[in-house]
Design goal:
Largest sheet: 2 strands, antiparallel
Radius of gyration: 17 Å
Strand content: under 5%
Shape: elongated
Number of helices: 6
Order of helices and strands: EHHEHHHH
Helix content: 40-55%
Length: 136
């Protein structure tokens, strides 16, 4: 497996989540994430390899990730009919089959890519409208 890169914007989102939901006596996870963010800013980099994170920062990052939707699947899978990339969620066949064994950072990396590409049905206005209707 190739290196997994964590986006500075995800680190910032995790920090924001910890700031909102942190208990007053538990500042160590927030401090670990802030240290990573500061290092990235000082180095002028937008991405950090997952393996370069301290265990405490990685645990705090993964706890934030656990609050997000796990899978981008929308139950319209075209890989079952032979497509290399699912037209429903935008993941590759390999990403779909490995999903349950991927690390949280690997999953977040896939989420980031498919969101930036926004080429799958998940990111169409029709799908968003369907979600709004379903929530009413």
């Amino acid at each position: 497996m190739s290196a997994v890169w964590i986006d500075l914007r995800d680190i910032e989102a995790a920090i924001h989540w910890w700031q909102l939901y942190i208990s007053p006596g538990d500042t160590a996870p927030l401090k670990a994430l802030m240290k990573i963010k500061n290092q990235m800013i000082l180095q002028g980099t937008e991405f950090l390899e997952e393996s370069a994170m301290s265990l405490e920062a990685l645990a705090a990052f993964e706890r934030w990730i656990a609050t997000l939707p796990d899978s981008p699947c929308i139950a319209i899978c075209s890989t079952s009919v032979g497509d290399n990339v699912c037209t429903g969620c935008g993941r590759s066949f390999e990403e779909i089959t490995r999903w349950t064994v991927m690390t949280p950072a690997e999953k977040r990396s896939v989420w980031r890519r498919i969101t930036q590409q926004a080429s799958s049905l998940r990111f169409t206005p029709e799908y968003a409208d369907r979600l709004i209707e379903r929530s009413r």
